[in-house]
Design brief:
This protein has 356 residues and is α/β, with parallel strands linked by helices. Helix content is 35%, strand content 19%. It is built from ten helices and 16 strands. An eight-stranded parallel β-barrel has the order 1-2-3-4-9-12-13-16, surrounded by seven helices. α2 links the parallel β2 and β3. α2 runs parallel beside α4 and α8 runs parallel beside α9. Bound molecules: manganese (II) ion. The site of manganese (II) ion (MN) has 6 residues, from loops.
């Protein structure tokens, strides 16, 4: 198993790559969607949180698809610091909102994601992570939820306020959308949209040598903001895999999100999907509680027996990348970095103990 961290777009700097190397990572996962252009400048940038005026803020430039050259340049910078670039996490809503919404630009947006996946492959990046969700990661609250009153995020009741028009995946793609909401659809309609997406994109990913990695729904409620969710119980991941069986159809396996689900158990899910070789990469974090009420906590507290998860992965021969997902903020001048260093240090110690 290999260790990595996830870096947000504004953190893609040589100094942060060296930081990753210094805390013992060999890999990084990067975000190219900018979740931090929000109108509320006081919002902490440690992980994206909802602003009063509109989710995570404004989506990117609909006409600026990520190019092979741009991706290759980032990869080279990362490799220059002795690391590997394992994955890109998330498409930009500006590039594919009508795939999620089945809107008038759906075919153009499918061409966008195909072009991006080809560029990811041409740039030698193995994995493209995505989250097929209309509401996205919405309705989380922040508070002193972790040990020592460290600030963290959680859910205290599921947000069911409708998603306004012009917004999807918790970002605004059209600031001038007429008043209204995106409306309600059935779970089966959303599964139909996912099936179409996979049928068209998986062959492209196969040809490009890219693994598509699906994140489960966070928060994992049956509906969020009045819209259906796809993978909000562990068994629903299998339905996603069965839609289009392929080496390129795999999982961005989020241990914390799975532990927040009301059915199944996180060890059984880890056993099932790792033994089937379906984990593209793993998000590791701890949590206390389940939907509709849970709090994210430090990796070594909370409900999940993290050493047990690592033992299951090891026994099943998982050799991919583990990243800490999110962590609570450590109270110091570099909250995000300290939190990541703490989580990665803990994970590295577990791996070394297991190898000893
Ligand atoms: Mn996650």
């Amino acid at each position: 198993m290999k260790l990595g961290i996830g870096l947000y777009r504004h953190m893609l700097t040589p100094a942060n790559y060296r930081f990753a190397r210094q805390i013992g990572c060999s890999h990084v996962v990067i975000h190219l969607v900018d979740y931090f252009k929000k109108p509320d400048p006081s919002a902490a940038d440690n992980q994206p949180v909802d602003s009063a005026s509109g989710g995570w803020g404004i989506a990117g430039d609909p006409n600026a698809l990520w190019t092979t050259e741009e991706l290759l340049a980032i990869r080279k910078q990362i490799e220059a610091e002795g690391l590997r670039l394992e994955a890109i996490e998330n498409f930009d809503p500006a590039h594919w909102h009508d795939v999620l919404l089945d809107g008038p630009k759906r075919d153009t947006h499918m061409e966008n994601v195909k072009r991006i996946v080809r560029s990811v492959g041409a740039a030698g990046i193995p994995v493209m992570g995505y989250n097929f969700s209309i509401a996205g990661v919405a309705g989380r609250v922040t508070g002193p939820f972790a040990r020592g009153n460290a600030e963290s995020v959680g859910v205290e009741g599921v947000d069911q306020t409708p998603v306004p028009s012009g917004m999807v995946w918790n970002m605004v793609y059209d600031q001038h959308a007429p008043p209204g909401t995106v409306g309600t659809i059935s779970h089966e309609e959303l599964w139909r949209r996912l099936a179409r997406f996979l049928d068209e994109l998986v062959p492209v990913a196969e040809e490009a040598g890219v693994i598509l990695a699906a994140h489960p729904d966070d928060p994992p409620a049956a509906t969020v903001r009045g819209t259906p969710r796809l993978v909000y119980q562990p068994a629903m991941y299998q339905r996603l895999l069965d839609l289009r069986p392929s080496h390129s159809n795999a999982l961005e396996f989020c241990v914390g999100t799975i532990a927040e689900m009301t059915e199944g158990d996180v060890y059984e899910a880890t056993e099932t999907y790792s033994s089937r070789g379906k984990l593209a990469y793993v998000h590791l974090r701890n949590v206390r509680g389940k939907i509709p009420r849970y709090h994210e906590v430090f990796i070594d507290e909370g409900d999940i027996d993290i050493p047990r998860i690592i033992r299951i992965l090891k026994r099943n021969g998982y050799s991919g990348v583990l990243i800490p997902d999110h962590t609570p903020l450590l109270e110091c001048a570099a909250s995000w970095h300290a939190g990541m260093a703490y989580a990665v240090g803990y994970m590295r110690a577990l791996l070394q103990a297991l190898d000893a």
